């Protein structure tokens, strides 16, 4: 099919093919009917116990889910690979904008010119005594009758964004998962990493940390592979089965990623970028190199098959048992050598245009207060799981809100729907917009509700949030049947987890700028377990994988959209914003004890801190107990809402937190509000003000 034909296909809303999916059509229809009845019963129960008009609309929202709509959106969004900064991703942006516009929502596209990173040249060959030189193809294989075989030619060659460029020829050292403790073990064995090529496997930490650790140990280059032990599935009778026959990663599968150690456009750290043709100050190449935000050494991701090939040529001591591969793998040795790798990587770090897409549902009573829902759109390949399962769920939420509008609903507060760009590179789209609108968001944002991946597969609801949202998540999850067990709710499975609600710590996805820069209450949620998704960031993250293994009925998408949308509705419609700071106080007390225990003998008294937290806990408990009384006294409602919504920003630390940087995409232990503020000179500050004013038109201007 021609490129033009593909564009037309991407811009329409294709219906789910008849009979498409797994299992018999009759069985599927009966199961979907059962799910619909269960959802209606739960919604009806709450409708009978919800006397307010907004509650009735919320109950109606839960009955409007469409499996077919979610599937259709996902199919359309994943027809082509769409890495940030490419024409294919611009088409995906237009699909999202056109869909939201067709729902009669005012939409806007906000572009930024940012530094992205693409591969120009890659080469990897292996030589060893007594062996012919082996050149690696560095490709991911399609399979017979692969419906995406033609489109696979458009997938970006496997690489790490922001890798250092250069050529290295050196012996190989095996470093297990590339953690610091692994390098400590190598040192204890007398293995010198300096000047060598490190071979490590995915599993424990992110790729940017793996490459940084290798560089800090003196390595000249890094190769990271996806070991079949961790991503290839069980080896029944010595043989593994992989996608498309099972969910597991094929031997040629490669996991791509970013090596940038920070968030946002690398050329504008802590201040906003601008659109192409506009004037904004940027870091120079020399300043970027001096910042050490990029590792500086060449690095490549390779397949499990290529990783094992390298292992077979290695010598040196035998690696310990926990460093070994799975069944059928060669004996892993730590080296160095005698295997020698010749690695060349030449990258192109260049300014490219990205596009954030917005839709606005203006509030009736409090239009200047914003409930923000967001998902990123760009993907390393087709992105059926990461991130477009979340995009499909977000569009499904938007369609339901449009149906509510047609029945007379208007939110009390404004809802903003956001489709972020360039998340995979460094959370760039969301970070630039947050930096562009920092004052507006600090004073007006009620909450940011993120869904990156909506469905991994089976496993239940997996939320993470800032503590004041815990109670709301529990209440909303009780109203949505579990798609895999409709006799129970999402809450029933969630509450069995430890903890039931994790924290949005670190910088794992697009909540980072809202939580860490500004202190906006935030959540992120998904359905299922990450372990069910071994094709992460590979060629095989496509619609076929999702349809066969992730969510064949698309009922998990609908359930996730239901709880996501219901939380947004509660935050937008409840007269008193439904925050509860009692869990927040408890969390602060636990965290303070961790800090105190980690500082034995410190000449610092923690008593004032504990006293302040106790006072907060007392006040939070009192407010929570009096909430129902306040709800019945109209003149208290506005004041109570202000108190509830502004509490978070009071936790902001306006000095740089030396123990924590803004990035990379890690999970940590802190709560929102621990903000780094680096000095910005007067020129950058005035530019920041101009760009911030420009960004606010997303909310103030409702035309396309």
UniProtKB/TrEMBL annotation:
> Catalyses which reaction?
Release of an unsubstituted, C-terminal glutamyl residue, typically from Ac-Asp-Glu or folylpoly-gamma-glutamates
Could you tell me the membrane topology recorded for this protein? Single-pass type II membrane protein
Any one GO MF annotation of this record: metallocarboxypeptidase activity
Write the Enzyme Commission number(s) for this entry: 3.4.17.21
* Major site of localization recorded for this protein: membrane
Q: Which residues form the PA domain?
A: 168-256
UniProt-annotated stretches for the region Disordered: 1-23, 660-704
Give the signal peptide as a residue range, or say none if absent: none
Top EC group = hydrolase
The regions listed as transmembrane in this protein's record are 31-48
Per UniProt, subcellular location reads as: Endomembrane system
Q: Which family does it belong to?
A: Belongs to the peptidase M28 family. M28B subfamily.
Specify the protein name: glutamate carboxypeptidase II
| Name of encoding gene | LOC123061959
């Amino acid at each position: 099919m021609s490129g033009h034909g593909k564009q037309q296909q991407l811009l329409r809303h294709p219906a789910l093919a008849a009979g498409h999916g797994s299992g018999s059509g009759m069985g599927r229809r009966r199961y979907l009917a059962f799910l619909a009845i269960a959802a209606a019963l739960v919604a009806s129960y709450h409708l009978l116990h919800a006397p307010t008009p907004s509650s009735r609309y919320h109950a109606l929202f839960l009955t409007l889910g469409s499996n077919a709509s979610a599937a259709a959106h996902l199919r359309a969004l994943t027809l082509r690979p769409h890495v940030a900064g490419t024409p294919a991703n611009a088409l995906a942006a237009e699909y999202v904008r056109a869909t939201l516009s067709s729902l009669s929502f005012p939409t806007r596209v906000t572009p930024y010119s940012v530094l992205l990173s693409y591969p120009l040249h890659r080469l990897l060959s292996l030589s060893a005594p007594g062996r012919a030189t082996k050149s690696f193809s560095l490709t991911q294989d399609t399979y017979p009758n692969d419906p995406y075989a033609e489109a696979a030619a458009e997938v970006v060659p496997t690489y790490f964004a922001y890798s250092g460029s250069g050529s290295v020829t050196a012996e190989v050292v095996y470093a297990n998962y590339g953690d610091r403790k692994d390098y400590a073990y190598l040192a204890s064995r007398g293995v010198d990493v300096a000047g060598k090529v490190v071979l490590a496997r995915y599993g424990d930490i992110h790729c940017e940390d793996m490459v940084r650790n290798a560089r800090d140990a003196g390595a000249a280059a890094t190769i990271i592979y996806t070991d079949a032990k961790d991503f290839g599935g069980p080896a029944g009778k010595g043989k593994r089965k992989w996608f498309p026959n099972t969910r597991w990663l094929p031997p040629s599968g490669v996991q791509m990623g970013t090596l940038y150690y920070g968030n946002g456009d690398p050329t504008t750290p802590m201040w906003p970028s601008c659109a192409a043709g506009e004037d904004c100050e940027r870091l120079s190449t020399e300043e970027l190199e001096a910042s050490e935000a990029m590792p500086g050494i060449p690095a490549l991701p390779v397949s499990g098959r290529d990783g094992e090939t390298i292992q077979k040529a290695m010598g040196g001591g035998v690696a310990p048992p926990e460093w070994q591969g799975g069944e059928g793998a060669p004996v892993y040795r730590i080296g160095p050598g005698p295997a020698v790798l010749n690695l060349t990587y030449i990258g192109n770090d260049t300014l490219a245009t990205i596009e954030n897409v917005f839709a606005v549902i203006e509030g009736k009573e409090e239009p200047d207060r914003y409930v923000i829902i967001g998902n990123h759109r760009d993907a390393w390949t087709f992105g059926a799981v990461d991130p477009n399962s979340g995009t499909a769920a977000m569009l499904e939420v938007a369609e339901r809100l449009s149906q509510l509008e047609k029945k007379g609903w208007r939110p009390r507060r404004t809802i903003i729907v956001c489709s972020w760009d360039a998340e995979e590179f460094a959370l760039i789209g969301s970070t630039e917009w947050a930096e562009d609108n920092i004052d507006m968001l600090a004073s007006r944002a009620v909450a940011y509700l993120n869904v990156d991946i909506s469905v991994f597969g089976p496993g239940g609801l997996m939320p993470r949030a800032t503590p004041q949202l815990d109670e709301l998540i529990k209440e909303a999850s009780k109203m949505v049947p579990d798609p895999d067990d409709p006799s129970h709710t999402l809450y029933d499975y969630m509450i069995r987890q430890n903890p039931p609600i994790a924290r949005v710590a670190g910088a794992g996805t697009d909540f980072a700028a809202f939580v860490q820069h500004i202190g906006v209450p935030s959540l992120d949620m998904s359905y299922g377990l990450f372990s069910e998704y071994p094709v992460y960031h590979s060629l095989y993250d496509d619609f076929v994988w999702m349809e066969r293994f992730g969510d064949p009925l698309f009922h998990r998408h609908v359930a996730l959209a239901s709880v996501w949308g219901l939380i947004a509705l509660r935050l937008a419609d409840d007269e008193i914003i439904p925050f509860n700071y009692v869990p927040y106080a408890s969390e602060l007390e636990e965290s303070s004890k961790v800090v105190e225990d980690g500082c034995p003998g410190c000449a610092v008294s923690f008593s004032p801190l504990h006293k302040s937290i106790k006072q907060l806990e007392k006040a939070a408990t009192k407010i929570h107990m009096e909430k129902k009384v306040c709800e019945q006294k109209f003149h208290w409602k506005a004041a109570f809402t202000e108190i509830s919504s502004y509490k978070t920003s009071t936790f902001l630390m306006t000095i740089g937190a030396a123990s924590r940087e803004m990035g990379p995409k890690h999970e940590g232990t802190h709560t929102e509000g621990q903000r780094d503020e680096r000095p910005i000179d007067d020129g950058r500050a005035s530019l920041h003000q101009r760009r911030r004013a420009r960004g606010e038109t997303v909310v103030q201007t409702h035309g396309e």
